[in-house]
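Practice problem: predict the structure.
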Amino acid sequence: PHRLPHREKEHRLLMEFFDFLLRFPERMTQRAIITGDVGTGKTVLSQRFGADITLEANKLGVNLRYVHVNCREYRGRLFLILQHAVAVFRPSFPKRGYSAEELLNTLMQSLDEENAFMILTLDEFGSLIEKEGSEAVYKLTRLQEMRPSKPQRISLICILRDLKETERLDASAKSTLQRNIISLEKYSQEQLADILNDRIQMAFEPSTVSEDIVNLASELAFSERGNARFAI
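Answer:
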């Protein structure tokens, strides 16, 4: 949806975090963490932000790509995640015969060739931590140190349910991530009703869904820990 009721503040925060990336894209990358329980809007917030910042970048002539990857769908394997990211630029790139390090180098080479920049969003980030631990995070966050004289290209957004999941990382990997943290609280019953009314306006003819149905759905969803996905 174009509008995210009760997540406007967090959307503004993300735009502020990545504003420097729009103005001076070669000089700085950014990292952010979005955390919150199931159904608090983590994924939709990130995707809405991705669409909006890409639009702003296009207006400024910055070649920015937003790539959203669900780590759980890729079994928490950095190799498979990078394979997906490389395919954005090289759709016919071979799926076998390359290590994660080689795929990362290929991705950076592709970005350099197109003078492009990427915001890579790692949804269900806990799956990557669980499967590959600090090593994968280290490779992604310390990438620029291996190419000090070249433009910075990849920014990260990590989405996870509980910030405690990062405690599995070593101190070095953890410190590179925890700069900008957006914590999403669970929705109240009234907020859930607002979200439902917004979606109903998009999806149904007027007067199709009664207020009683909205109230019942929002009440049930609130009892499910304020889960907007359950409400919808």
